[in-house]
Amino acid sequence: MDAMQNLLTRRSVRQYKEDPIPQDVLERIVEAGTYAATGMGKQSPIIVAVTNRALRDRLSRMNAAVMGGSGDPFYGAPVVLVVLADKSIGTHVYDGSLVMGNLMLAAHAEGVASCWIHRAKEEFESEEGRQILRDLGIEGDYEGIGHCILGYADGEEPQPKPRKTSYVYWAK
What we know:
6 helices, four-stranded antiparallel sheet, single chain, 17% strand, alpha+beta
């Protein structure tokens, strides 16, 4: 897919099929995330690629609890890419946000739907979240930036909303 077309046509999807994403496709998406720009090239983010259903469901419950609910905030998506970033790096939130953008654009280029789900910060500030990281062998002081949920859309992808007229101001 043409890069500009990819940028203009990616949309957030909020209904997924249970179909798994092939490992090679998932690996290409994750690799694209590792090539996001980071402040001074410090590569502060990490990506936790969750394909284990039990952990995916645990994260979903934790995320729902942050909102005070009990539904599935991951909309049935079978894969969750959790992006965290090293708090000691001043640009960590920006760095992680760029990783999230790369992940979503790469997914779209691969024909995989995605959506950014918030509340990773709250999840991984909790003792349960910190324990999950320790159980995965991840050490350090990381802030949850977001969850990039991935899967195949169950239905039509949303159409873009018209761009607001005050989006760009030209200073010529």
